[in-house]
Amino acid sequence: MTTENATTLFGLPTENLFSENVQQQYDDTCAIKSQELILNSAGLNLTEDELRNEAYQNGWYKPGQGTPMEDVGKLLENHGMDVTQIEHGSMYNLVSELSKGHPVIVGVDSGELWNPGPDETFEDLLRGQQADHALIVGGMDFNEDFTDGIVNIIDPGTGDYCAGYPINQFEDAWDDSGNFMVSIN
Description:
By secondary structure, the chain is an alpha+beta fold. It has 7 helices and 8 strands, in the order E-E-H-H-H-E-H-E-H-H-E-E-E-H-E.
């Protein structure tokens, strides 16, 4: 099998831009903000505060604790979108969804993206792998032989739009959620 002339970019390219429209307003609304961005891209004009209140009223969000993984996607479903939750997802699942043009929300350990290093390794050993953040995978850009590449994320925690992270760094952060993902069809 040859990969010559194969498409190596799935989804959005790396841009490394900051946007206040991407930045979440509260410390614990990353999943809500991720869903807001997807709903707004579909033409629904909803605010983070409106969705936060809706999630709270439905028991999908607790102030100070955020949104439990099993409830990520419920706001999207409540507004008519078809959502699939996948536990133990793979890079193949991500590429498959992105190649179809489907937005994907994943759970990650934010520290492994924002502040990688020995402290994060020690934290995993001491406390176990724990996800504490949700974000949107905007795209994946592989090298020519598909052995390495960059994952482009839309991160409500930092306000980054299509920030590029090496695949191995992203996978390490994503592993902490059990490779949880929500695809929107």
